[in-house]
């Protein structure tokens, strides 16, 4: 069983073009639990309202909890959260996010847990795909902005 409270040492750092980001202090094996996305849990309706405000300031910390295509709650880490608040997008990410039922079986109140999808070197930036592979099409509810992930398969724009 994954202990969601046990975290690997992370460091928030200033990236060249993406604002703040998160890197791992230690090398990580594939499949390592890294962190969960924490914040205020709000309805998808309230999330849409806040999304409009965040669009105006050009940054968003909303994470859609949709795991089955049905409207669900949204996690907003703008005011409270943990280091995952600073995780940036990559088109070739080293993290994957899963909906995890940990202390509730209510389908609206699962946790969002990040795991490594490959081996990660110490000091490497941790990223996930904002478009989402396990969590429907809108991992973070927002807008469109140019992608600076610099991976060889970069899609150039992030459409949220
Ligand atoms: C959840 S925040 C991530 C932390 C953010 N870098 C910061 O400084 O607070 C999401 C925002 O980070 C920026 N961002 C994340 N990934 C990016 C990327 N690959 N290219 C450009 N900007 C990115 C965008 O401004 C996006 O709205």
Automatic annotation (TrEMBL):
Listed GO CC annotations: chromosome
InterPro entries named in the record: H3K9_Histone-Lys_N-MTase, Post-SET_dom, SET_dom, SET_dom_sf
Span of domain SET: 8-131
Principal subcellular localisation of the protein: nucleus
Subcellular location: Chromosome
Keyword set, alphabetical order: Chromosome, Metal-binding, Methyltransferase, S-adenosyl-L-methionine, Transferase, Zinc
One GO molecular-function entry: metal ion binding
GO annotation terms (biological process): methylation
Pfam family, any one: SET
Span of domain Post-SET: 143-159
Entry protein name: SET domain-containing protein
Provenance organism: Absidia glauca
Gene name, Swiss-Prot/TrEMBL: ABSGL_12165.1 scaffold 12710
